[in-house]
Amino acid sequence: MTEKQKKKITSVLRVFIMSVLPPVRKDRIISQLPKCFSKGAALHTEGGFNAKVKTACHEQRTGTVGFKISKVIVVGDLAVGKTCLINRFCKDAFDKNYKATIGVDFEMERFEVLGVPFSLQLWDTAGQERFKCIASTYYRGAQAVIIVFDLTDVASLQHTWQWLEDAMKENDPTSVLLFLVGTKKDLISPAQYSLIEQDAIRVAQEMKAEYWAVSALSGENAREFFFRVASLTFETSVLAELEKGSSRCIGDVVKISNNTSNMYATSKKKHPSCCQ
Ligand SMILES: Nc1nc2c(ncn2[C@@H]2O[C@H](COP(=O)(O)OP(=O)(O)OP(=O)(O)O)[C@@H](O)[C@H]2O)c(=O)[nH]1
Ligand SMILES: [Mg+2]
User: Fold this and answer.
1) InterPro entries from the xrefs (predicted)?
2) At a CB cut-off of 8 Å and minimum separation 6, what does 74 contact?
């Protein structure tokens, strides 16, 4: 199949998909790379999207990116605020009562980045030890890992190393984007915050993660953070697609759409034996 034919089929499929799905919400349209939170711990500090990515989007050469769903896993100690952070962004809601996540939960968020549809599936995992085994079976095949800690609880920052190790057992460390997020910013004074921020930035640098501080209660930085996750995951996906050379053949796209159960089976690793 020639490049021209592939491009034609891709654009026909895109028009078809866009006509069967409701339009992307106006407040999920990303036309510029959002800024990082801290230049000291950012995945990259360039002012805009990669030039190759911008050109590819403009010329509709993004291959399967517009049809795929990128998997993002959210991990961290119990009660650090993972569910609340996701709910603040996805539902603009906040619940002050703690309800432990049992196993996993997920939310889908559809974006449009540089004119290309892009979906994130946010996997909210349980922090409680007794549910960890079930939750860890959902770690594999992630494009991004969000490691959450509570800014008021320094132990939860130390534990992020263990969460990183567990998440990376199931993923390829060279291709996963990492984010380190401190929550409950509303609960600490600016002086207390700047103390923990120093430690958090150091941890993020060592992990090669991008650092953010947020509050699900006030909503501070929640939207900015998820926009950054969506943008960087999108950028990485397009670059990977460009590196592969030409986009995949049409058969692959149809297979992905028809078989959602295989959508995340990108790793050949087995589930931990405790969960079999
Ligand atoms: N003040 C404040 N409280 C928060 C914030 N985020 C979460 N909380 C509270 O912290 C508690 C735990 O929040 P969850 O989001 O359920 O925690 P989780 O990390 O999902 O916990 P597990 O599901 O057990 O792993 C709840 O009582 C929330 O109301 C925040 O930004 N500010
Ligand atoms: Mg939860």
Assistant:
1) P-loop_NTPase, Rab, Small_GTP-bd, Small_GTPase
2) 82, 85, 86, 122, 123, 124, 125, 146, 148
